[in-house]
Amino acid sequence: MLSSKFRSALRRYGLAGLFRAGLQRILRTIGIIWIRNELYRKACSAPEKEVPPYRELVFADFERQAAFDPQWFTPIRLQQIARRFRVPETTAFGCFDGEQLIAYGWLSGKYMGYSKQLLPAGDGYLWDDYTHPDYRGQGLHTQIIRIRDQKLYERGLRYGVGMVRDFNRASRRGFEQAGYTLFERYTVCGFRGGKLHCTRRYGKAAPEISLRS
């Protein structure tokens, strides 16, 4: 009998994706970083479709979710989220079912997510998207992307960009349904605690960049 967590992962990644994700996890345990990413990009324009009700999130919104999804909203993850609110030009937007946060995504106008790589001027970065397991398969990921697209347009930015792991077929599908197209592929590799080598850098064909696992 397959667990609900495994079934959810199988829907998101597929068998081949689950194998690659597992291999990357095993390599990390021995200190080897090997990540394959795909970057999607879309030119900002006026929204073509209405977005669902949403609001800009504060840290208390995340704290309340520990009761709804304790496997995701762990104390360590909440600490990480608290730190993000201190990063300039970084905001989160979410959709609710009553008091329950069912989907959210982050938007940065300065950095590419976890790294300290600066975005090219005029670009916005969409990252760390989440949909509650009970609400997956309903198109919420695409909707949370469109919400941030609207914010990008309102801010007068030029492009929206988002990066997904190559095995995450559900995330790729969400970006494609929101009008994004594959722009670049990256491979990041190296050893834990040291500099990682990246095959490319968004906006430049760069050699090594400092990324932390």
Structure in words:
β5, α4 and β6 form a beta-alpha-beta unit. This protein starts with a helix and ends with a strand. The chain is built from 5 helices and 9 strands, in the order αββααβββαβαβββ. The longest helix has 26 residues. The C terminus is likely disordered. The protein has a 9-stranded mixed beta sheet with strand order 2-3-4-5-6-1-7-8-9. It has a single domain, classed as Gcn5-related N-acetyltransferase (GNAT) (Aminopeptidase, 3-Layer(aba) Sandwich).
Short summary:
The chain is an alpha+beta fold.
CATH superfamily placement: Gcn5-related N-acetyltransferase (GNAT)
What is the third-level CATH name, the topology? Aminopeptidase
Q: Residue share in helices?
A: 25-40%
Average pLDDT works out at 82
Mass-distribution shape: globular
Widest sheet: strand ordering? 2-3-4-5-6-1-7-8-9
SSE succession: HEEHHEEEHEHEEE
- Beta content: 25-35%
Please report the total strand number as a whole number: 9
End-to-end separation = 34 Å
**Helices and strands: which structural class?**
alpha+beta
The biggest beta sheet is recorded as: 9 strands, mixed
Q: Which residues sit in consecutive blocks of at least 5 with pLDDT less than 50?
A: 205-213
Give the number of helices.
5
Indicate how many domains the architecture comprises: 1
CATH uppermost class: Alpha Beta
- The CATH architecture designation is 3-Layer(aba) Sandwich
What is the rounded Rg? 17 Å
